[in-house]
Predict the 3D structure of the following.
Amino acid sequence: MTIENLDCIYIKNFACPASIGIYPHEKIAPQPLIFHLEAYGKWTETDFLDYDKIIAYIQTVLAEQHYELLESLVNKIAECLLTHFPVQKLVLAIDKPNAVKNALVGVKIERTA
């Protein structure tokens, strides 16, 4: 099956606090992150993606440890989702709204299983 024939399920604007950042002031308290996810695949009534389980999985990964860089976090989440869910392609973006004054910054990756 080619990527072009896959369906897309998305989760946008999922906000969740995380212990993230390389600077000392970022390690004091959790910071808000905003997740945007597109998962591609073919699903049925018996083999499907459960939005709540994906969100819970992301929350579990965030609770595991402090992450220095968004790049490390986004890659870990992508690897976990591709391993544990029926997803053939994943586009994942994480915004860090408090990182820079007057701008929204983040990281976005695309991965295939």
User: Anything to note?
Assistant: The chain has two helices and four strands. Strands lie at 7-18, 31-41, 89-96, 105-112. The radius of gyration is 15 Å. The chain has a mean pLDDT of 93.
